[in-house]
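TICKET: design request
STATUS: open
ATTACHED STRUCTURE:
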């Protein structure tokens, strides 16, 4: 892992912790007394979802879906399901949990896929958002922090599978 390629933290560990607390409070308020199924989009969401679920004072079921839409740094727009979620979600309140929304293509695809399974409700939650890069409109219900149009790594996000374990978010400089 070559840390000389990284910028200073865009968001520090403490700022991210605050963000998780704020998003969890919003979700708790919206789903008070309900059970929610959190479905993390792997691999990038793994750090966020594990922090988020422990911050939620709700009944939480956990599942994951593994998709691949990027080769290196380029969005191909083609979403490949490598591992589907396996909890039965019909009639349940589902929250899809992403690491970052960029073009929106991945979530637009996943939203349709999960809506077809007739959940009681479907919301989308992301740790980070790059609103300037959006190509398709997709409703994002819970947004942690906005980031500029750069390649970011850390807090679950990778560059060619590296840097996911950094506790902060930084820009990867090519
Ligand atoms: P979208 O389909 O919205 O363009 O892309 C979403 C996915 O692209 C994210 O889940 C993430 O895996 C990847 N992605 C988008 N921007 C970045 C970035 O700046 N850094 C990293 N590591 N992944 C990104």
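STATUS: resolved
RESOLUTION: sequence designed for all positions
ATTACHED SEQUENCE:
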């Amino acid at each position: 892992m070559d840390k000389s390629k990284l910028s200073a933290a865009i968001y520090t560990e403490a700022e991210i912790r605050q963000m998780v607390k704020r998003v969890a409070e919003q979700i708790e308020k919206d789903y008070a007394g309900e059970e929610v199924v959190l479905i993390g989009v792997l691999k990038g969401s793994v750090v966020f979802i594990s922090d988020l679920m422990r911050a939620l004072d709700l009944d939480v079921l956990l599942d994951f879906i593994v998709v691949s839409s990027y080769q290196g740094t380029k969005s191909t727009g083609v979403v490949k399901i490598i591992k589907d979620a396996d909890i039965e979600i019909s009639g349940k309140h589902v929250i899809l949990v992403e690491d970052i929304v960029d073009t929106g293509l991945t979530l637009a695809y996943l939203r349709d896929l999960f809506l077809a399974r007739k959940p009681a409700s479907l919301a989308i939650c992301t740790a980070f958002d790059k609103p300037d890069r959006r190509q398709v409109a997709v409703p994002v219900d819970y947004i942690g922090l906005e980031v500029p149009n750069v390649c970011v790594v850390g807090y679950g996000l990778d560059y060619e599978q590296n840097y996911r374990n950094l506790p902060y978010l930084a820009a990867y400089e090519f």
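CLOSING REMARK: Helices lie at 13-30, 46-55, 105-115. The chain is about 20% helix and 40% strand.
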